[in-house]
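2024-03-11 09:14:02 DEBUG pipeline.ingest accepted 1 chain
2024-03-11 09:14:02 DEBUG pipeline.ingest length=361
2024-03-11 09:14:03 DEBUG pipeline.predict start
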Amino acid sequence: MCVYFTAKNMKLFRSYRWIPMAFVLACLTFFGSLLIQCPSSVNAVQKPEQVILNTTNTIALIWYWPFGMSYNLGANICHDLFEIPNCILVEDRSRFSEADFVIFHHRELSNGQQKLPVHLTRPQKQRWVWFSQECPENNLNMKPLAGHFNFTMSYRLDADITAPSGRLVPQNFGTGLTVEEFIPKDKSSLACWVVSNFSPHHKRTAVYNKLKTIIPVDVYGGAVNKRLDDKTLLPTISRCYFYLAFENSISRDYITEKFWYNALVGGAVPVVLGPPREQYEAVAPKDSFIHVDDFSSVEDLGEFLRKLAEDKQRYASYFNWRLKYTVEPNMWIKRTCEFCSKVSSLQTHKVYKDLDAWQRE
C-alpha cells in the first residue's frame, strides 16, 4: 500500500500546531520510504498524463432570467455563496464573446419572448445550454432549436446539468434527536392537495375523484378558488397527515416541488403519482413516500392511508429520513456553479440535433 502526500495533506499537518515537529519529520521520512518501495504504483497514477490544474475562471452567461425573476449575482456568487472557485456568473450580454457557456431558459424561447442570438458571431469555444424544468408535454416549439445546443440543463438525471426541483442533502444532527421532533403536532386533516391545473384528462384527476369517496381530502389552490399564499401554504400542509404529490404529467424523472417542498418541507407524508417508484427511490429513501402504483386499486390506497394515520409508530417511520437529511430546494444557480468544474470533462463537440427526441426518451 502506498501513501501519497499532497499540498492539502501538508496544509492539514501545519494546521495542527500542537504536533511536535520531530514527529512530523519522522512521519515524512517513513512515508517517503514507502514511496521508494512502490515505484510501479506511482507510475500508474501518473499515466496516461499528468493532471494539470486549471486555475482560470469559467464564465457562464445567463442570457435572460427564467420567468423574469432576476437575482443579484454579486461579484462572485459561486464563491461567496457556495464556495465554488473559478466560476463567474454574469448577465451582461456585452460579455457574450467572453462566455464559456450561455444558458437559455426554454419557456421564453417557446412563447417568443426571447430569441437565440444567432446573429452574433459565436466564439469557437462557447457552448450553449438548453434549460427547462418542464415536462415534455409543456415544452413547445422544440424544432427550431435543433442543432444549436451543446448541453442540457433539466430535472432529468441524465441531463448534462441535473437541476431538480429539490434534493436531499446529508446532515449531521448529532445525537439526541428523535423522529417525533420532526412531525408537526397539530395534524387535523387526513389528506390535502394543492392544485391549480385541474384537467379532466389528467390521470391524477381520476385518482383524486375516486380517493375522495373513500377518505376526506382537503383541496386548495386556483382550481377550487382557495388559494394559499407563501405564508399559509406550509402551515396548511403541516396539518395534514398526507399530501397528494400528484404530477400533471407522467414523465421520466419528473418529480416537482409538489414532492420536495409541499410535502417533505411541509411535514406531510407524500402520496406520489408520477414516474415509477424506482425513479423516486433514486432521489429519496424508499420509506419516505407512498406510491399510488403500489396498490391494486384506489380503494386499497385509501384504506391504507386511513389505517396508517391511526398507527402513530408506523406513521412516524415515514419521517426517519429527517434524522439524516435536509431538503435543499431548487437552486439552479448553484447547479450552474457546480457545472463550471465539469465543463472541461464533457464532450466538447456534442450537439443536440433533436432536443425533443432526447426529452422524450
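2024-03-11 09:14:41 DEBUG pipeline.report The first strand starts at residue 58 and ends at 62.
2024-03-11 09:14:41 DEBUG pipeline.predict end
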